[in-house]
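Good morning,

Attaching, inline, the backbone tokens for the sequence recovery test we're adding to the shared suite. The designed sequence is right after.
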């Protein structure tokens, strides 16, 4: 087990909640399909920035007959890899549009060539729609994850795919993301709410990379406790993120998370720009 504590730089970020509807006089109209790149655009990337990508909604059928709602955001060119996003706890408001994953879909295709796949687990709703079924506390959701992984490889033909879980989504990844075709796990604010030591020990038989970002002020599993709870996994890399909280609110925290994702999926695209 590796333990890393680093403090991130924040001087490049300007935090804003102002809605940007035009860029240098050009209308910023975003719809499903190809969005034209504006060659003269040079704007600060803000919380509500949406960068060019090909965004396509889809549905997936699970082995137990449920239809799940999802969307893929692909780069316009030069793809480098992909991530499958597993959202936070639905009973606490988690969904495919939870802010980290929405921002990943809005930025990473253009900034890093990464395709971002998001979906609602069973019974979960967002602006894209409601997936069929009912919340099953991570049990039936294992079938959702298996269906999504098969869709990513068999239908979307994605390569260099990583599974990224956040909070509840980390337990789904640890318990169910055993498909041998993905490259590894990236865990954000893992609470280890339902994962048992025996389930963690499985990963000692799987040498794929596993990285966990642990916020300094996490409400459920702060760094000291995470180090102890994850001790059954010998090769996990734990990264304590100073000043961060469980929900990763604020542009500096978002930038850090997205940078750590890119560090694994497409390291050649670092550092991530703060303007586009």
């Amino acid at each position: 087990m590796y333990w890393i504590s680093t403090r991130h730089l924040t001087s490049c970020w300007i935090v804003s909640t102002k809605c940007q509807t035009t860029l240098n006089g050009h209308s910023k109209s975003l719809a499903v399909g190809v969005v034209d790149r504006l060659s003269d655009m040079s704007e600060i990337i803000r919380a509500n920035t949406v960068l060019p990508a090909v965004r396509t909604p889809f549905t997936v059928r699970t082995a137990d007959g449920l239809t799940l709602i999802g969307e893929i955001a692909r780069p316009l060119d030069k793809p480098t890899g992909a991530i499958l996003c597993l959202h936070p706890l639905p009973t606490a408001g988690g969904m495919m549009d939870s802010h980290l994953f929405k921002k990943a879909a809005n930025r990473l295709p253009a900034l890093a060539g990464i395709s971002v796949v998001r979906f609602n687990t069973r019974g979960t709703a967002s602006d894209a729609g409601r997936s069929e079924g009912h919340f099953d506390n991570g049990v039936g959701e294992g079938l959702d994850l298996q269906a999504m992984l098969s869709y990513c490889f068999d239908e979307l033909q994605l390569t260099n795919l990583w599974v990224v879980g956040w909070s509840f989504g980390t337990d789904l990844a640890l318990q169910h993301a055993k498909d041998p075709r993905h490259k590894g796990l990236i865990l954000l604010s893992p609470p280890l709410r339902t994962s048992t030591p025996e389930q963690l020990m499985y990963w000692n038989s799987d040498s794929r990379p596993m990285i966990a970002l642990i916020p300094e002020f996490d409400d459920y599993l702060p760094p000291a406790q995470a180090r102890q709870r994850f001790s059954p996994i010998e090769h996990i890399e734990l990264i304590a993120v100073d000043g961060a909280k469980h929900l990763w609110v604020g542009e500096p925290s978002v930038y850090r998370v997205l940078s750590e994702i890119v560090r694994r999926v497409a390291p050649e695209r670092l550092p991530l720009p703060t303007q586009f």
